[in-house]
Amino acid sequence: MAAIAIVIVSHSKQLALGVRELAAQMVQGQVSIAVAAGIEDPENPLGTDPIQVYEAIASVFSDDGVLVLMDLGSALLSAEMAIEFLPEAQQQKVYLCEAPLVEGAIAAVVAAAAGRNIHQVMAEARGALLAKATQLGLVSSPLSLVTPTTTNIEAPTAEIRLIVSNRLGLHARPAAQFVGTAARFQSQILVRNLTRNTELVRGDSINQVTTLGVRQGHELVITAIGSDADEALAALQALFANNFGEAARSYCSNKEGLPFALGVPEAYPEGEDNVTLNSPPAFQHQVTPATHGELSGIAASGGVAIAPVAHYQPTHITITEYHVDEPESEWQRVQAAIHTARQEIQAVFSQASLQIGDAEAAIFDAQLLFLEDPVLLEAAHQRILDHHINAEAAWQAVVDEVATSYRTLEDSYLQERVDDVIDVGQRVLRLLAGNLPANLHFDEPAILVATDLTPSDTARLDPTKVLGICTTSGSATSHSAIIARTLGIPAVLGVDAQVLHLADGTLMALDGESGKAWVEPESHILDLLEAKREAWQTAQQEARATAHQPAITRDGRQVSVFANIGSINDVQVAVANGAEGVGLLRTEFLYLDRTSAPTEEEQLEVYQAIAQVLDNRPLIIRTLDVGGDKPLPYLRVGFPEANPFLGWRGIRFCLDRPELLKTQLRAILRASVGHQIKIMLPMIATLTEVRAAKVILGEVQAELNQAGIPFDAAMKVGIMVEVPSAVAIADQLAAEVDFFSIGTNDLSQYIMASDRTNPRVANLADALHPAVLRMVQQTIQAAHAAGISVGLCGELAADTLATPILLGLGLDELSVNPQSIPGVKQAIARFCIVESEAIVASALQQDSAVHVRELISTSVTPPA
User: Fold this and answer.
1) What is the DSSP string of 399-422?
2) Any residues with CB less than 8 A from the CB of 140 and at least 6 apart, and which?
3) Mind listing the pLDDT tens digit for each residue in 280-308?
4) Alpha-carbon distance 642 to 755, whole Å?
5) Sheet-wide strand order for 2-10
6) Is residue 404 within 8 Å of residue 495, measured between CB atoms?
7) How far apart are the C-alpha atoms of 799 and 766, rounded to whole Å?
8) Where are the alpha helices (DSSP H) in 758-802?
9) Hey, which end of the chain has fewer CB within 10 Å, N or C?
């Protein structure tokens, strides 16, 4: 039997079975073919189910590849979601193919039976319809895929062809990395999608690259023209080889590690897309008889919400075009607005990083690139100069053109990226018009009702006040929906517009799993929803029972697993997920969204509340770490910093504002009574900084003693190791403090000299690069030689691919985002220290992060 397998996904079970029978007859059973079609509903059997697709793929899985053919609509979404359930190693060998179902299946099985490789099989499937059209005389011959030649013959020219392996192709974040990398070089980068036979586009334009519609399996030709053409292509090729740094994500798994049927409360969320006790979005739509006041929509973010309605209406900006005599002045207005917009988006990114994590906050990296897009900026400038029109009109016209280009794409996933274009476009327009941002703060818990929400709007929501989202437009794969899921806010999108006419305060209930909402729900509906919410929460608690056990390797080494948190809500989620303590409390959330610093009493109340929830588990509180990517308007330096990451941030800022630091230290010390609280100092680069901070701490302790205010006099003091100089003098620092915590997010960017918030170079700041790993090893060795413990609280700790590396390096604790705790504990239990140390020894000798990942993948045997 041929090694490559075929899976047919269709809304109709009868259709899929017929296609399988026909295809099987063509190759006499030489190819494994599985079917995932229809849903288990006798009255409404048409539909697709991700679990069926997963089971079909698993039943015929082959290391040589599995080709998935799908019909329209939710079949694609179901197939994409099914892949999420597979082990990471298997995900890379499953290919989604947009070829026609019948002709594609026949062509694919014939090619597979002939021993072709997976890419050749995909090509045969995609070419099936063209062959049919040629036979019917509808086209004369297959389209030519010859790359057009460039006009600049003088400059050195180089070219590469690549097959795209990303599951969703070049969507927003990979496209941003591609453009950022291309922009680093002097050479002109041109790209063409051979699979779709597109024209050449500029590689330094986020919009032009995205509109290529690149999906998994597509072949690209990339041309570089210029003095550094070879270097540019090598860098771009490395991006593709590293899969753009994308890690696999799973929605939910049960206690045995297998995916569960959507809506069945038998599991806990593990992936970054789940923050609270909510199920993943259900893409299987089943029609049930409507009840009074029931609205049907799109299931975008799981969970149940019951609360009064609160309407949100973004500020409408009316644009009038008029003639201007000084077009350059208008262009300067555009540039000023873009500069301010960039600062605002960076602030949103910082806030979102605290709330939803750096991975999801990276959505806003693409928005920053939009503001730097040379094609967009040149078009706006030219429009002002040519037509002598005002900045607002010119900007709106150019943004509308870009948005239209996205809407006309065939790819529905890429069509939805228009939301990001409009989001950032409206931000600049608002600044040009002098309007204030719309208010998204609610005094009382509510279900937010709106026409739509932009990604920026959604990132600003407070999950304790916005209990649910109900909009008349949107989709389950939009960036707004992704953020809502990450925030744990149930959401139903695309409901009837009548919901916009409800009075504020009207009671509403919604079920983000089924995609239904109820206006003034009847008592039996409320009872059912309350029961569902309670049953789900109970099931989560039971399913997470194993996560509350210690994380112990196969050879008996226990590693503490703590949580990184940034709010009181976070600590509750952390404890529910099995956190053994808090390894990093980011106190910046106390200082955000206000006009002055929090008082001692305000801080004391929060620290005590968090410690109370932890119930005597360790709590490491990091002192204020602002600056760099975390600016605070009321704590401005007073002058712009050319390199804020190398500037006045972290401990440097606090030592220059001793009263600010003293207030925080007083609150921490007062909260320490009866709790296991530790202080951690950020951004330490010198011994002098540690000693200066300890002097201030001593002064505060003396003041409290004099006032008769109790505190833990033996409270431990540690530091963040995130600056290369701290690694270099780790032995000296270890003599001054009680513990180390390695912050690989910052350490990586400083070692690699690459700003992790700059899309053009962020891919260089990879914590698995051997240079970073050697620094981590050196830090751990210095700490242990001095007899102090050392933990790691960067994003690397949550990457289970890196678990054997971290174990082999000898870390005492890992601190991760709350939702990652169960998965990290399970990963630790799969390894032993001896094998992990062997992997580390080899990893430290590799020459790139890509090769380190390859080493881990080939060295680790998946659990049976």
Assistant:
1) HHHHHHHHHT-S-HHHHTTHHHHH
2) 134
3) 333 333 333 344 578 988 888 888 999 99
4) 13
5) 31-37, 2-10, 66-70, 94-97
6) no
7) 12
8) 770-785
9) C
What length is written for the chain? 864
pLDDT digits (tens, 9 = 90+) for 640-680: 566 777 888 889 999 999 999 999 999 999 999 999 999 99
Question: Which helix (DSSP H) or strand (DSSP E) does residue 622 occupy?
Answer: strand 619-622
Amino acid identity, position 413: Y
**Under DSSP, is residue 434 helix (H, G, I), strand (E, B) or coil?**
coil
> CB-based burial of residue 666 (10 Å sphere; 0-12 exposed, 13-18 middle, 19+ buried)?
buried
Type and span of the H or E element at 542 = helix 523-543
CB contact at 8 A, 232 and 219: no
The interaxial angle of helices 418-433 and 363-372, nearest 10 deg, is 60
**Catalytic residue numbers?**
479, 793
Find the helix or strand (DSSP H, E) in which 745 lies. helix 744-751
- The full DSSP string for 468-536 is EEEESS--TTSHHHHHHHHHT--EEES--GGGGGSPTT-EEEEETTTTEEEES--HHHHHHHHHHHHHH
**What is the reported pTM?**
0.50
Output the six-digit token pair for 633: 């308007």
Residues 607, 671: Cα–Cα separation, whole Å = 6
C-alpha distance from residue 558 to each of 372, 554, 718, 841, 861 (Å): 48, 10, 21, 21, 21
Q: Are strands 717-721 and 739-742 parallel, antiparallel or unpaired?
A: parallel
Distance CA 237, CA 158 (A): 13
Residue with tokens 């000693």: 691
> Three-class SS string for 116-151?
CCHHHHHHHHHCHHHHHHHHCCCCCCCCCCCCCCCC
Q: Quote the tokens at residue 260.
A: 């569960």
